[in-house]
Amino acid sequence: MEPAKKVSSAAPERRRGSGVRVVYDLLRDEILDLVLPPGSPIDEVQLAERFSMSRTPIREALVRLAGEGLIVTLPNRSTMVSNLDFLNMAAFFDALVLMYRVTAQLAAQHRRPEDLDAIRDRQAAFAAAVRAQDALAMIATNAAFHAAIAEAGRNPYFNSLFSRLLDEGRRFLRLYYQSYEDRLPQQFVDEHEAMIAAIAARDTAEAERLGRAHAEQIVRQIQTLTIGDERLEIAL
Amino acid sequence: MEPAKKVSSAAPERRRGSGVRVVYDLLRDEILDLVLPPGSPIDEVQLAERFSMSRTPIREALVRLAGEGLIVTLPNRSTMVSNLDFLNMAAFFDALVLMYRVTAQLAAQHRRPEDLDAIRDRQAAFAAAVRAQDALAMIATNAAFHAAIAEAGRNPYFNSLFSRLLDEGRRFLRLYYQSYEDRLPQQFVDEHEAMIAAIAARDTAEAERLGRAHAEQIVRQIQTLTIGDERLEIAL
DNA sequence: TGCATATTATTTGTCGACAAGAGAAGTGGC
DNA sequence: GCCACTTCTCTTGTCGACAAATAATATGCA
Q1: Is residue A1 in some structural domain?
Q2: pLDDT in tens, A118-167
Q3: What is the nearest nucleotide to B76, using C1' and CA?
Q4: CA B82 remoteness from chain centre
Q5: Shared domain check, A120 and A66
Q6: Which residue out of A28, A63, A89 would a mutagenesis test of the B interface target, given it has the greatest number of B Cβ atoms within 10 Å?
Q7: Is residue A215 domain-shared with residue A114, that is, in the same domain?
Q8: Do A91 and B164 touch (CB under 8 A)?
Q9: Inter-chain CB pairs, A–B, below 8 Å
Q10: Cβ atoms within 10 Å, residue A19
Q11: Which phi and psi angles does A118 have, rounded to 5°?
């Protein structure tokens, strides 16, 4: 209950620069969780009335999302959620594996005690999601876990690329999450523990090796899923 | 001379969606060439009257520049050109060297004939700048040369990170460009030629090795320059 | 019926104006 | 003279409205 703050006309009820962030965060989550699947049209006026604000802050959020490649804008015509292209999958995997390796190694090199706490927190959240068999939570917490490792590496350049790759990965995994009820999640938990141990021990070589193995594990999983999907379609 | 197009009130004289790109490109160049040095204030209204347009397209360009980290905005207060931090220099070098290596290797792997043409064009421009002893042109054409190699590698994720790093590098080099009258530029030309040969021969290992050597060369150069600068200050 | 052209509809891009925040400057009390 | 408070100023954030561009639709003609 606010202490009688300015009972003026129509309660602003939101601080000045906050609108953009709200729209950005929510839209980003909806895109990454495929609530807004690739190709979904983004209508500015619709969003404006949904968030009860003008088109200006909406547009700013959209510009930022476009800068990260999450949406694409056809000039003068329309805006929509970008498709994840299966053509350049190899490039995506190359970048993902390399960033797993590099960030794990740098984390082992530069970690501080508080980094380990943050990493272990994320790992606990991931383990909880696995126990609960909550696939969406698994995907999100797994990405958060690896982002925390990257943070411990303290290289903002790698971090921003890695974040982008993990985002894209969230969309891929969300697309095929049905198979997440198999034995792999528990294996991921164990591999995560091994990575934490190597980072805690400052064993850079081992951390890099584990990062690579974990990444290639994930790549194989996604490839299996996509191939499985294609086989299903061919079987028709 | 336009063929009598719409002699209405105040000739628009610029196409609809073009304003943002003009502002973005020009501002970006001015930042990278240190015409706008780090810390320079960015005033929206001033830019608006400079480009004869409203603040809206200006703001959109600024949002995109902020997304790339070239400017920073203090909420509700001011916007200015971001400082290049000498604290995280090690992280910058790590990322730069790795991207040199990766893009050179990928270029050797995926290059097509037209890529080689583009790379050789950029190399010719760089060599011309060296002959002319035009330091600013050297810096820009060198970055363009390596961007072309990255393009040939066909990995958009690496390319975007590498572009960002090369931009940042342009600012660093521009800061210390006085020493560019020594023997290094010609050595760079030769090293570039060797890289082109390896990429043309599809020798991935050699391309990666040369990319690494070239990158470490540049890192050493920048480190020498910065140390030299610091030593000068200490000598006082 | 089929095609070229004109019209409409819808969405984006741009504009000018206003209001909110945050610092700077000014003011009063001790 | 110094500190707390108020006022002012300046920049940014937000708004509603209008204009341009494009796709969809309608119209006319063969």
Answers
A1: no
A2: 999 999 999 999 998 888 888 889 999 999 999 999 999 999 999 999 99
A3: D12
A4: 15
A5: no
A6: A63
A7: yes
A8: no
A9: 66
A10: 19
A11: -60, -45
